Amino acid sequence: MTEHTLTVAGVAVDTRHWIGGRRVASAETFTDVSPIDGSVIGEISRGTALEAAAAVAAAKAAFPAWAATSRAERARILHAVADGVEKRIEELSIVETTDNGALLRSHRRGVMPRVAHNFRFFADWLLKLEHEDFETRGHTNHVSWDPAGPSVLITPWNAPLMLATWKVAPALAAGNTVVLKPAEWSPLTASLLADIAAEAGLPAGVLNVVQGYGSEVGDALTSHPDVRRISFTGSVPTARRIAESAAGNLTPLSLELGGKSPLLVFADADLDLAVDLAVEQYDNAGQVCLAATRFLVEESVAKEFTRRFVEKAATLTQGDPRHETTDIGPNIHPRQLEKIDAFVQRALAAGARAVIGGHRKDTQYYAPTLLTDVAQDSEIVQEEVFGPVLTLQTFSTEEEAVRLANDTRFGLAATLATADAERAERVTAQLVAGTVWVNCFFVRDLQAPFGGSRHSGVGREGGTWSFDFYCDVKNTVTAP
Ligand code: NAD
């Protein structure tokens, strides 16, 4: 324990950066606050261009040896990281809940096991990654995935360690070295990941973690000329700034951004299933990029759907995310809550009706909200709120449903509830979305591509798509 160690719910967390296998403090700090009750967790090192440069230099120095490490050895170490995560699921869960306010039971049972799975999956996929050979006039074309170099990974606060490791694991598996910058509202579990990776035997400099504000250390990282890949998950305005920073060096980018995804409920759907899917959209207090926040319901069942939705939503318990019985926790920050409420108040002023909610509960919690009487071109239908706020519109034909679903600048996901398989196929083919769920939500194989269309992102990650992004894919042509 040092003066830089915080004890968070009994767990020791180092508040400094992790650079080149050493803990490094900054002169300045920023304050980390718990969304559960607004209490101060502690002071975290506030990185600058100096620490960004040091982290990239460490990643650059460690790159040749890590890139030359056999696939089997890289996979072995990634499995050892997964073992370390599994041993610390309890600690990671309570620290993450304290830091970002998401449900403790979700962290324990779903999120942290998935963090371990991210490492295992990409370790195993690396071993399966096949080199394709083609033949042209007797010449062999041999395709290989070469490690690209130091990779900067920038992540948001809504699922901090899950989203970070969704990038860290494939980047390391590919043979790249990494500088991870977690969001300043949820910096803690990335620091624990650095400890776990070091204990698992990941060599110094292969994974670096820098803390701080996006506009400071983040900007310095994304404009650094020695960075070979940038993978970013976050908002559209930040993606634009990162793209500008990266443009100077033409650094390849992967962007996983926001959404305003539809849930289409057709009259032939199992309405109980549709309502279950609908209520699920309040998960993580609505702070889910993939959330189907726009309900599009066939006119003839809209009244009954709404009745059952209201009934089901009333059974949700909102409160302390550490309690086993809580379904909806706080929003991340009072500033976020203000933003959510401003969206809702403007919508109400423009003529929307709150079927449920429509107001904050206190400075950290927002009442689960469903708004009707909203115009297609209104702000509340077109902009991502990132809180427990859903809208409901009706349609009378399949064509209208598709038109409303696609009438957005986003294209991350879409969910359909219908009992008609042919309709599902027909509608899916017309939807602009990176992922379409038919009569389900959120289930996804890590082999499948993940990403968004339009303003929801650039590129796809997952399975071989991740290796395509993190590697310099090479074709070697050999004469007969
Ligand atoms: P954000 O864009 O404000 O911040 C994300 C990260 O970018 C943070 O680490 C932040 O410090 C950093 N950053 C900010 N400015 C930067 C700059 N100039 N240079 C470099 N880095 C910078 O997003 P947020 O509020 O943390 O997250 C919410 C957003 O993320 C929502 O739009 C949500 O839909 C999106 N999201 C998308 C996915 C996906 O997979 N598509 C997943 C989760 C969240």
UniProtKB/TrEMBL annotation:
Residue ranges annotated for the Aldehyde dehydrogenase domain, each copy included: 27-475
Listed Pfam families: Aldedh
InterPro entries referenced in this protein's UniProt entry, alphabetically: Ald_DH/histidinol_DH (IPR016161), Ald_DH_C (IPR016163), Ald_DH_CS_CYS (IPR016160), Ald_DH_CS_GLU (IPR029510), Ald_DH_N (IPR016162), Aldehyde_DH_dom (IPR015590)
Keyword Oxidoreductase recorded: yes
Name of the protein in its database record: Aldehyde dehydrogenase
Keywords recorded for this protein, A-Z: Oxidoreductase
Family designation: Belongs to the aldehyde dehydrogenase family.
Oxidoreductase keyword on record: yes
Active site positions: 256
Annotated organism of origin: Streptomyces phaeochromogenes
Classification lineage: Bacteria, Bacillati, Actinomycetota, Actinomycetes, Kitasatosporales
Entries under SUPFAM superfamilies matching the protein: ALDH-like
